[in-house]
Amino acid sequence: MRFLIPVVILGLPLAEIAGFVVVGREIGVAMTLLLVFLSAVAGVVLLRIQGFGMLQRVQEAARTGNDPGIDVLGGALIFLAAILLIVPGFISDVIGLLLFLPPVRRAAAAFLRTRLAIFTTGTGFYYSSNTRREEHRGPLIIDLEDDEFSRKKKDGDEDDAPPPNRISH
Length: 169
Description:
By secondary structure, the protein is mainly alpha-helical. It has helices at 4-27, 29-64, 69-86, 90-100, 102-113, and strands spanning 125-128, 133-136. β1 (125-128) and β2 form a beta hairpin.
């Protein structure tokens, strides 16, 4: 795996140049440039269409309290697919178009999930089905009186270490 990244970084541009030469020889320079331009436009359009749809799914999952992790990964793959379409080259265009297909994207996401850890945090909001509106669920607040809590040492404690199972700030 370690040697694969330099091979891809060096080999992909060489393969793209070879692809330009082969396609340019078959259909001509003007049509080759037109194909490169059209693939870049397609990348921007597909990113706009599918990217906004993915963003709405992530927002809906976060709003309802579901884990948006898989949708975030799908959005990252859509962004990668769009970048591959925008970058000139026919091999990257084929990979980008494949990543725009939902079954291929799901397979890539499943492969990446086995190698990545996706952490998400809650927003502090939850959807209440009874009231049909979002309510803020704040932290649990415990109100202590002055005699119940003090930062001063008691009983001649000389130890500066915090008591066990306590968090010090």
